[in-house]
Write a sequence for this structure.
């Protein structure tokens, strides 16, 4: 039992950060006149004090189906008796050892000596200029993504000063990718903009990441249509975690055939279990990490804080201070701060992505996203249709009459006129949150090297709306023809669900309860 529960806890880790982890993708040898500081996102490997790698966590292929089968009797015992304390305690006792080495202490610090192995020093940095230009990957900044972004920003400040010293540059360009945007924003709030020329926010997490924010605030909801779309795409990919999840749903639908729990009864079970175990489980995993808390959006922040720390304020006082400090100094005012940075001479570009179904466990899983973050968040306010829908003709015509027609995407799903920087926000269809191909770097490089300020109208090859052509590895201007959704109307899972729909829906509720996630209608 303990082994099965432990494996499930690892899956919780995958669900929480599946769209956020950033692989070491190759970067093109695109060059700029000023040095580029590339602040990476979450996912840098972690090591314990003895130098042993402790993150990423490793899981065995095919673990999920067996784990669910082993855990189902435990859940059903709770259904039979109505007593959930033992179940919750067992889950917590099993989860904590799995995450013990990467979890921070109650002050949000790595007091056990764990961390990343990348370091920098003024003596090791070199001037990499060739023919008067720098490669985009020359000065990549890594950091312990668990730690307080406000504190990490101090180290980034030293790194920027050192790069400027060795290169003789008067200013640098900077990229904040995913969580990296939280670090850069904290740096600019804390130290000012005098050393920054251009700033690109790429798949930024500053305005929140759906998988993190939804989990921390308990905003979980399963929608069968979303599961269908998710399955249609991912069952044809090499994502073994998702494949295992979907296969387990199918397997368990057969096993639980005939188990007809009323929805109201199941929801009552969730209410009992989530109040006990959800905050305990979060604090045993990623909830002690200020860096992850920085990716909870403003809408969910108060609810997430209350859910996880109510009655625990003294116990976690140090951690709460770090979370609130970033929230109050950086997150609350990020939009007005970005506008102020622009007024002070920093050219700001936003690069977003979409075309993928979010993990179908959260309330807004029908909103356009890059698989982890919503388009509304990553673009700072674009208006979007729901997945597989378009903006209404009345809405589009009204925007055209108002003079905003150029901001409507050719697939009629997005209106970029409502975002914070409509003239310098680009969006690519067909790229997931965790992917950074060379062609996307070419777009960012063009922004960095353009004399004056590059806008969505500056280059025909880089209009506001592009599509990623995976076969050619290029960005292509979006048209009605090349912007069709990547999933079909009736996917693989939909065909299976035609027979098992009611059983699958019931199992999804049970499955989420096993993962200790709050589920509401």
């Amino acid at each position: 039992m303990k082994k099965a529960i432990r494996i499930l806890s690892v899956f919780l880790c995958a669900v929480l950060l599946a769209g956020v982890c950033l692989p070491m993708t190759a970067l093109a040898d695109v060059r700029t006149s000023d040095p580029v500081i590339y602040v990476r996102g979450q996912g840098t490997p972690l090591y314990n004090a003895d130098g042993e790698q402790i993150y990423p966590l490793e899981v065995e292929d095919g673990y999920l189906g067996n784990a669910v089968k082993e855990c189902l009797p435990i859940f059903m015992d709770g259904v039979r008796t109505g007593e959930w304390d033992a179940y919750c305690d067992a889950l917590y006792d099993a989860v904590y050892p799995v995450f013990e080495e990467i979890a921070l202490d109650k002050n949000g610090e790595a007091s056990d000596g764990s961390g990343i192995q990348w370091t920098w020093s003024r003596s090791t940095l070199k001037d990499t200029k060739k023919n008067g230009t720098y490669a985009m990957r020359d000065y990549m900044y890594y950091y312990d993504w668990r730690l307080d972004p406000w504190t990490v920003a101090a180290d980034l400040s030293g790194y920027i000063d050192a790069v400027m010293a060795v290169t003789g540059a008067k200013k640098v360009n900077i990229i904040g990718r995913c969580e990296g945007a939280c670090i850069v924003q904290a740096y600019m709030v804390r130290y000012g903009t005098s050393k920054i020329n251009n700033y690109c926010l790429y798949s930024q997490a500053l305005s929140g990441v759906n998988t993190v924010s939804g989990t921390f605030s308990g905003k979980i909801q399963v929608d069968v249509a979303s599961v269908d779309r998710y399955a249609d795409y991912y069952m044809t990919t090499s994502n073994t975690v998702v494949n295992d999840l979907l296969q387990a749903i199918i397997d368990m639908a057969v096993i639980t055939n005939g188990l007809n729990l009323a929805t109201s009864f199941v929801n009552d079970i969730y209410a009992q279990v989530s109040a006990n175990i959800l905050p305990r489980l979060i604090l045993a995993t990623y909830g002690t990490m200020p860096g992850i808390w920085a990716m909870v959006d403003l809408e969910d922040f108060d609810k997430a804080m209350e859910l996880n720390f109510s009655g625990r304020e003294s116990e976690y006082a140090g951690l709460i201070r770090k979370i609130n400090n970033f929230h109050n100094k950086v997150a609350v005012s990020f939009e007005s701060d970005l506008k102020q940075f622009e007024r002070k001479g920093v050219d700001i570009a936003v690069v977003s992505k979409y075309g993928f179904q979010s993990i179908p466990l959260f309330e807004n899983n029908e909103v356009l996203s890059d698989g982890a973050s919503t388009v509304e968040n990553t673009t700072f306010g674009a208006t979007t249709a729901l997945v597989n829908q378009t903006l209404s003709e009345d809405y589009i015509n009204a925007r055209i009459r108002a003079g905003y027609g150029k901001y409507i995407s050719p697939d009629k799903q997005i209106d970029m006129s409502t975002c914070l920087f409509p003239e310098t926000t680009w969006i690519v269809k067909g790229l997931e949150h965790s992917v950074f191909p060379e062609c996307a770097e070419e777009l960012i490089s063009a922004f960095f090297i353009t004399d004056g300020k590059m806008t969505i109208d500056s280059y025909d090859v880089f209009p506001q709306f592009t599509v990623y052509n995976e076969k050619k590895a290029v960005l292509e201007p979006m048209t009605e023809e090349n912007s069709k959704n990547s999933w079909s109307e009736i996917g693989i899972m939909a065909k299976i669900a035609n027979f098992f729909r009611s059983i699958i829906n019931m199992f999804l509720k049970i499955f989420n309860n096993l993962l200790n996630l709050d589920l509401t209608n």
Observations:
- The two ends are 30 Å apart (CA to CA).
- The longest helix spans residues 492-514.
- The chain has 17 helices and 14 strands.
- The mean pLDDT is 80.
